[in-house]
Structure formats: structure tokens, C-alpha cells
Amino acid sequence: MISLFSILFKNIILLVLITISLVFIFTNNIGFKEVRYIFLGVGALYVFAACFEAFKISSIKKETVKFIYFTDGFFAKRFIKIIAFACCGIVLYYSDSIIKYMAFLCFLIAFTEIIVTVWRYVKHLCYVALEGDMLIISTNKLNTMRASEITKIEARHGLTYFVNDKNEAITMRTDMMKEKEAFKIALDAWISANLIKDKVIVE
């Protein structure tokens, strides 16, 4: 419920920013001086909301042991998003269109993505956790799979695959984990505790 609230909170603030930008562009109700202070204040709130969303979505029980898990895919998706919004902002800013001031909204989103990426890295919000019968992977999104749903576990070439009874798979780059040996021990213990040793496919 709190995670849902954090998502809604961030999106509502984004809608407010869009509305403020459109009102400024198409009406005389907000002046240039006023919009700078409004945009700065609401923009700062948007950055806070994005960090709060990342934190809440990645929250797990305090006693749960988690293993830090940052992949190339995580950084690539963030980098592409930042570049895309920055480029859109530059194109809008140097255009002669009336909507050129929407560029600042694009710059804000790009800046927010940078802050959130740093925040995730510093706070270790990208991880793999084994919580009870639940496998939890938090990167660009939160993936979960219960032990009772797993039909196959296979590890090869630095990748570990978890396949469930709906034939949906979670792929992990275990070769990129700093604590891969500790994770392997924890994973073996989790597999034994949840009685799914028969689901493991040996190379």
C-alpha cells in the first residue's frame, strides 16, 4: 500500500509540473518570475518523491539478508532514459516553438533519473534477497517468485535461471555479484529449506 502511495505521489507531482508548464506557456496567469520559484519548489518535491518511490518499492524486512546486485542492464536503461530526456530538452529549448519551455521539464526528469540512480547505488536498493519462501530481485523493477512456483533452477555461464509453473523466467547475472560465493551458499540453504532440490538442474 505504501509503495502504491509513493508511485501515485510521484506521478501526481509530475502532472502538477506539466499543468504548471502548460498554464505558463498558453496563458498569462503565471509570470516568468513566478514560474521559476514554483517550478523550483515543485521540482525539488518531484526529486524527493522519486527517491522516496525507489526506497519504498525496494523495501524488505529489516532482518532479511540481501546481496547487492547492480547489472549492466540497470545502468544501461538509466543511461538511455537520461540521454533521451536530455536530448528532448535540448531540441525543445533551441526550437522556435511555443512549447520550448517544456524543455525544463525534460531536463528535470533527466536530472531526477541521475539522482535516483545515485540514490539507489548509495543505499544499495538494487539487490537479491531470499525472504522465507520468496526470491526477491530489485533492479529497475521488483521481481518476485515463490519457491512453490519454481519448476526449474539452472546455472550456467554466470547466469542463473528460475522458471516458474507459468513458464515465466527470472534471469540473474550471478557473475556480476560482489558476494557471489556468499549468495551461492545462501541460495543452496534456501533451496534446501524450501524442499526444491529436485528442481535444480546440474550442469
How would you characterize the overall build of this protein?
With 203 residues, the protein is an alpha+beta fold. Among the domains are: 1-57; 144-201, no CATH class. The protein is 53% helix and 19% strand. The protein contains five helices and eight strands; from the N terminus they run ααβααββββββαβ. It has helices spanning 2-26, 32-57, 72-93, 103-122, 180-193, and strands at residues 66-68, 127-131, 134-138, 142-146, 150-156, 159-164, 169-173, 200-201. The strands form two sheets. It has a four-stranded antiparallel β-sheet with strand order 1-2-3-4, covered by helices on one side. It has a four-stranded mixed β-sheet with strand order 7-6-5-8, with no helix packed on it. A hairpin with a 2-residue loop joins β5 (150-156) and β6 (159-164). α1 (2-26) packs antiparallel against α2 (32-57), α2 runs parallel beside α4 (103-122) and α3 (72-93) packs antiparallel against α4 (103-122).
